[in-house]
Amino acid sequence: MQLQIQAPSPSLSIEIRQFIELRMGYLMASLRHHMRRCRVLINDVRDTLGKQSTQCQLVIALDTKDEIVIEGQHEDLYDALNAALHKARRIVQKRLKRQ
User: Fold this and answer.
1) Which domains does the chain have, with CATH numbers?
2) Any idea what DSSP says for residue 49?
3) Closest by Cα among 96, 85, 16 to 63
4) What confidence tier does 64 reach under pLDDT thresholds 50, 70, 90?
5) What do you get for the CA distance between the two ends of the chain, in Å?
6) What are the b/e assignments for 74-91, b being 16+ CB within 10 Å?
7) Is 16 helix (H, G, I), strand (E, B) or coil?
8) Which helix (H) or strand (E) holds 42?
């Protein structure tokens, strides 16, 4: 599986990149052979109340040519990433069961 990490700021720290790779590996280990590519997009956004939060979007390309887009949003980057990864795992598992 190819992993791409994109953020508007080129100063995304090595620790954050390593955290993303570690969590992806841990949560998606059993599904990895069904995934061709995963793109992680990180953006800072304002929610409806005007608070600053982080949006983590995962774009997962499966071997079946399907592409799944999942979003997680939270005030904390790590929580946004975890939310998106947990959703992604559930959705990919459901999609693979339908085949």
Assistant:
1) 2-98 (3.30.160.100)
2) T
3) 96
4) confident
5) 20
6) beebeebbbbbbeebbee
7) helix
8) strand 35-46
C-alpha–C-alpha distance, residues 55 and 95, integer Å? 23
Across the range 40-57, mean pLDDT stands at 88
Which tokens belong to 51?
């608070």
Residue with tokens 């949003």: 73
From residue 58, give the alpha-carbon distance in Å to each of 49, 50, 96.
24, 24, 17
Which helix (H) or strand (E) segment is 8 a member of?
A: none
Output the pLDDT for position 66. Answer: 86
Asked whether the beta carbons of 59 and 88 are under 8 A apart, the reply is: no
Find where tokens 């499966």 sit.
62
Query: How does 5-43 read in b/e, with b if 16+ C-beta sit within 10 Å?
Result: eebeeeeeeeebeeebeebbeeebeebeebbeebbbbbb
